[in-house]
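Ligand-bound model needed. coenzyme A.
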Amino acid sequence: MSADKVFAPGLLAGRVAFVAGGTSGINLAIALRMATLGARVHVLSRKAEKVAAAVAELQVHGDAAGSVADVRDFDAVAGAADECAKRFGPIDVVVSGAAGNFLASAADLSPKGFRTVIDIDLIGGFHVMKATYPHLRRPGASIINLSAVQSYTAIAQQVHACAAKAGLDSMIRALALEWGPEGIRLNSIAPGPVSDTEGMARLAPSDGHRDELTKNIPLGRWASKDDIANLAVFLASDASANISGTLLVSDGGYSTGRG
Ligand code: COA
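Prediction:
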């Protein structure tokens, strides 16, 4: 459903959004939805060609910019946050969504493989929040972290992602406590399976995998990228002004049957 059917046009007019990982997948869908609702958006990811393509797509809707940076490199992320603030002013919304994942049993996963996912998802998330912190509009800023159902429910061949996402969600609560008095809100979104994403192509590579997953979702549907973008807009907007330190789950009921 298009953004203007769900949200008032101009809902995010005048706001500045910094979207880490915002050049593909769910993060790009979030960046685009915020741009169509009036936000000026700065995206960040590792590959120059993906940054250029995303910025061109975003500029159709308004002012947008981007930086090439790996979330594992704090100085690069801090440079991107500086650029964003210099160009657009104080940051109202931070989306921290850069992630890496693959299926691997713990027995087969190398220590480096485990560390790589922790480095990107958990430490990278900290880098994004710490680097943007000095530039946040306060009071009023909203930090939105892309978690996953792996944060609180065990999923086989996902020990690395389970640990990383659980760490991220714990970090969100700790930062909500520390930064709340400055009027900064932090929340996580935990999607279950999301259609048309690289993540799910990696985690459910065959029809068999996909059918098995769908059978276990009470609503019988996967999220669309726009479903998740809508949640992000809600968390970015004044409609969620009293919500901080929470995890909003969008999984069609998938985790209700998983203990
Ligand atoms: N199974 C097991 N181990 C894997 C793996 C897989 N499918 N993919 C990577 N690893 C391990 C590597 O083997 C390596 O460890 P080793 O040297 O001990 O063997 C370690 O992870 C680092 O891999 P490398 O490819 O050098 O790291 P990278 O920084 O280039 O890649 C990843 C990061 C691993 C997350 C990669 O999968 C990636 O870039 N993915 C793209 C983004 C993505 O996953 N999107 C979906 C988000 S939900």
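Residues 99-102, 104, 109-110, 112-113, 116, 120, 198-199, 202 surround coenzyme A (CB under 6 Å).
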